[in-house]
Structure formats: structure tokens, C-alpha cells
Please model this.
Amino acid sequence: MNTPSSSMIGKKVVTRRHPEWREHQLRWRWLLDSLEGGERYRQAIYGYDTRGLPIRNLIRHKREYPDPRDMIDTGIGFLGPIIEDSNAYPNSSREIGEGYHRDPAALASDDDYELRRARTPVPTFVAETLDTHLSRIYAREVKRGGPEDLVAWWRDVDGRGTTIDQWMIETLAPLLLLLGQIDVLMDHPAAPEGEDVETRADMLRLGLDRCIASCILPENMLWWRLDPHDRRYLECLVRENHQVDDRSRVYYRLWTAEEWTLYNEEGEVVAAAAHPFGRVPIIRLFDGRKPRCRNIGQSRYESIAERQREYYNRDSELILSDTTQAHPLLQGPEDFVQADGTIPIGPSWLLPKKKNSQGGTVSYEGFDVVDFPKDAAESIRKNKADIRDDVDRDSALVKSTGREGVAQSGLSKMLDFSDGNNRLAKIAKVLAKAEVLLAELARWVCSDGAVDLNDNVEIVVVYPAEFDLYTAADVAAATGEFQKIVAAAGSLPKTEWQLLTRLVRLSLPGLGDAQYAECDEEIAQYLEARSQPALDL
Model:
């Protein structure tokens, strides 16, 4: 009986791909490109179309496809299958000359598509929205409490002196909210080269008992097997990039509950080691879950990324339109056109007119400038404004009553921020839950799986629930209008109590239930006092 060799097993391991990963990996990469923007967004390739040309964020018009004979003669394009298992962007010299880092303006000659791609600035809607939301949430202090080992981990999360606040703001929170999910690996730091670790004392001396956290992008979590409750990984395969001899090489690490094994691209075992955790020390955090998938998150910023791409394409079309209209066509007598298609111009750019002396009279044929129609360009400009409004509305940055906003003041303007506060409060709850799950896994890793997560040790992570989304002038104006409403109250105490308590919640979103109860009681006492004279009559 023949048994498979280790190399055959390794090749089978490194080629594993989960069906849910195959379905969503291009989408994840596109979302990350939308966040990063710039040249990465401009040059990103998401496969190849039926004519062999790369699929980019800038959509190619039908008239912008080159002649198939030109593709063969000049080498434009790359006829091949869609590359779905690639951690780097294709870097074909036939496609962009000297590679990914070449200036895109090098191809912006008489090719309208490359002209649009080179001259169109990449919008930053996704980055702006994420920065706006997170800056509001972390503008206030996040309260944390827990055992001493957890507090020590919060002071240095990744082994580089990064605090939990810095790590959440700069690394984990943007990725979690953008992708709807993120995997986090908790592990002990690797031993320094030349150091032998044989005892517990050696671990303490070298600081190897600490826990360091690192994020794994979804596109690098290639395959997994979950427990029956979809809470933990039983096995998972992670793609890693390592620097070897000044070159970046791809490796694959297979995690199980007892050990990890590192493979190279050929499926050969490079390293292997047992770990003491008793479980895979990787957890997938979610913002929301896709209803038809077991282990895939739902991004709340996907619609903004879609509008960013549409705005990018319309902006490119407007740039091309304005460029074309800046050089109008000249229509004149056919006799002036030479055999080579040129028109003779005299000194000082003098353009002669054709003389017509037939019939006994002398006349001249004039030249006319053909004006381009402007309606199409104006329509694109209006559509760009509509897309920008849609982005603001999805981000709860403006009043969501229509595209044509009107200036408001006082209480009505203040109420516009109620939706924004509610959205930020939901995001804050997601981040707080993620921190608690990370804290539990960090304690598990620090103790090598010996800690009891069901003990009475309480982990407290409290994010703010109310946010200052209005100015002092708005608050002052709203307070004055609220006082006017209260001063006229008293005729319908029961109805007015319902209206005023609802108004307080809209005006002051994010307060605790106890605070709202105090306000309700105060309003009830005031209305009772105001309505008493009327009852005595």
C-alpha cells in the first residue's frame, strides 16, 4: 500500500482554498484599494476581460478598446486566465512598460483611456468617512478595566510599544469597519537568534511570555475549518510574506489546536513547532455577518466605495470632455487641405481665406469654429454632485431630506445630528465587543491556555455613547427654542409630556437610561405645576 509523501501532502495543503474565500477575495482587495487610494487604486488589476485587457477601477469605454491586430503588434494586454490567487498585483512589462512603479503619464499619449487614467485624481471618500467616524468616537476616553496581566498587555499590544488606543485607531478599527471582518493572531514573540530557550526562566528573561497581536487580512486567510458553533477555528491556512535574501517570498502556515507548520510555495515543510494554547490562537472579529455565509463579514462602507469608483469614472469622463472642448474643431474650405492632411499657415499664424472670383464678383469663403455641445458635461458635473451628496448621506454627515440642502438653524438643525449619533454609537458598540473578545484571547495566550475565561474576573470596555456633533452656537440656539416651547406648555400636559420627552431624546442622543428617566421626571413635575391653575378653575 502506497502512502503519500510529505511533499505531496504539503502541495495539497498549500493549494487549499475555502469556497467563501474564492467568492469574496477580490472584493476584499478592492475595498482595501479603495481605502488606500492613490497609485494603488489607479493601477490595481482585478482580472482580465474577454479581450485580454486588465480590469481596473477605471472602466474602459467600447471605443477605447484597441484593434486586435494592434494588440498583437504592440503587445498591449495579456491573454490569460483571471489571477485569483495572487497577493500582489500583476506587473507585466508588456502592460505598463517598466512595471507597477512607472509613472502612468508615460502612456497618456493618444490613448483616451490611458489619458483618463493618468489625469484623473483618485477620490478619498472611504478614507475620509472612516477618519471622520473614528476621530469622533476616539475623541473621548475609552474606559477599560481588568486584571493586571491584561492591563500590561493594553500598554503594549503588538510588542512594539503600541498602546491599545493607538492600535485600535490606526490598525484594527479601520480594517474591521471597512472589511466587515478581520482576523487577529495572538502569539508569543519569537526567540532572538542565537538564544536557546530551555526553561521558564529563559522565557521570562527574554520576555517570551508576553502576548503580541497582529492582524491577518481576509485575503490572506485562505482556508479554514470551524467548530460546530462557528466561533473558533479548528484549522486554518494563512499566507505570509517573508523577506529572504532581499527578496519577498510567500509561505503558508497551517494552524491547528496543537501546532503550526510552515510550508514554502512548493509545499515543502520549512519549520514546525508545537504551541501550548490548546486552540488556534486566531479569532475573526465581525462588524456584521453576511446572512448566506458562515464566516464572512458585511462591510458598512461598501456602498461608499461603490460611489467612490463611480465618481472616479465620471470625473475621468469630465476631464476628457473638458480637454477635448479646449481644442475646438476648425471647419473651412476643402481646397486648403493638403494631401498630407495639413493646412498652410502664413507668418504670425495668418490663415488665408479662399478667394472666389467666379461670376464676375469676388467673395471669400470663411472659416468657422465648431462649438462642442455643453449639456453632456454639465450633466456629468451634476451627477458628480449627486454622488457626493449620496456619500455624505450614507455617512450621516448631512441632513437626509433631499439632494438640495437648505440652511437651517436652531433646534431643527440640531436634530439632524441624531442619526449621526446613533450610527456612531452602533460603531462604538462593535468596537467595544471586539476589544472584549481580544482581551479574553490575550489572557488565554498569556497564560498558555491555563486561564479560566468563566472565572469572576471582569473585563470592562466602555466606549462613549454620546458625541459632540454640533457647535456651541447650535446648542445655544436649540436651548433657546426648547425653552420657548416649554414656556408655552401646560394646556395639554399628557400630550406635551410625550412630545417633550421625545424631543429631549432627539436633542440629547446617547444619554443613559437613568439620565433620560431624570429628565422625564423633571418634565412631568413641570407640566403638572403648569397645568394646576387650569384644573382649579
About this structure: The radius of gyration is 32 Å. The CA atoms of residues 139 and 454 lie 33 Å apart. Residues 38-119 form one domain. The first strand starts at residue 143 and ends at 145.
